[in-house]
Design goal:
Layout: E1 7-10, H1 16-26, H2 32-44, E2 49-55, E3 61-70, E4 81-89, H3 98-112, E5 118-119, H4 127-135
Parallel strand pairs: 4-5
Antiparallel strand pairs: 1-2, 2-3, 3-4
Length: about 150
């Protein structure tokens, strides 16, 4: 992919096959019915969730960002927290600033919803994601260890 950056626009139902392939590249375990249901949920609630796609040449999707509004967990009445739920750029669209543009577009959506802060997460061992977050101006706030126990 060369030239200008792809056009960023809201996802539509007709994007689901290509958007779903990009989602599976990011989250390989999210397949089939679960993938479809998650995309439908984003499309069904544009007031609280945004799914934005990057449309390259000939209408080919080369990236996406998903964002949502989450409760702000600080004390006192606060506006909701914008949250980056997922970000993916296909290998053909990388190293050109497309990820940054997708993140900035999601941040603008969150600002339009009254958010004053944006959150995100990454697995502690995912160095690429952590480096990208830092490059986009995000700082690590805390780490969380999740425990489970099998019940008989």
């Amino acid at each position: 992919m060369t030239g200008a950056l792809p056009r960023i626009r809201p996802a539509t139902p007709s994007d689901c096959p290509a958007w779903g392939r990009l989602r599976r590249a990011l989250w390989p375990a999210c397949t089939g019915h679960r993938n479809i249901e998650e995309m439908r949920a984003f499309l069904a609630d544009p007031a609280r969730q945004a799914a934005l796609v990057a449309e390259g040449r000939k209408g080919v999707l080369v990236g996406f960002v998903e964002a949502s509004l989450r409760p702000n967990y600080r004390w006192g009445p606060q506006p909701p927290l914008g949250y980056l739920e997922g970000l993916y750029v296909a290998p053909s669209g990388r190293r050109r600033g497309l990820g940054r543009v997708l993140v900035r577009t999601a941040e603008a959506w969150a600002r339009s919803k009254g958010c004053r802060e944006m959150g995100s997460d990454a697995h502690p061992t995912n160095r690429g994601s952590r480096a990208a977050h830092a490059a986009y101006g995000y700082r690590e706030r805390e780490r969380l260890v999740i425990f489970t126990k099998r019940l008989a």
